[in-house]
Amino acid sequence: MVADITNELHYLPVIILRLVLAFIAGSVIGWERETSADLPVDHHGSMYRMFALVCIGACMFTVAGQFGFAKSLTAPDRVASNVVTGVGFLGAGLIFKDKIGEIRGLPTAVGIWVSAAIGVMIGAGNYISGLVGAVLAYFIMDMPHRFPGLFQKRNDRDAK
Known about the structure:
Elements: H1 2-36, H2 46-67, H3 76-92, E1 96-97, E2 103-104, H4 106-123, H5 127-146, H6 154-159
Antiparallel strand pairs: 1-2
Helix pairs in contact: 1-2, 1-4, 1-5, 2-3, 2-4, 3-4, 4-5
């Protein structure tokens, strides 16, 4: 028990850095979804919380895989692969067909998947790559809102 606490204290600055960076990355992506998604009033804050929590959770699983077990049992790659599987199920629950038959929720589902990948990257110690991934994910998700003309169908653009 004392050895576990001593080991954790030794790695604590690295772990805290990873968690804070995962929080920032997930928050940035969640904020974009929050300000862009058409949500009912009683759901405000749900996208932000979901993305930030998924990113931090993925980071915590990765940190636990890397630092939380005896070295003979350590398998961070297994942790990462299970995060991918679990988050895939979470994302699948967000995709639905509305009353008029249109499929909704794909950008959010994919965003959650990417947010988990960012959390795993930061949890594994790839800080810069994780933050670059977060910035790129933000721009990818924000582009249709910033430049709607780029995302119109060709027929609609030609008609104008």
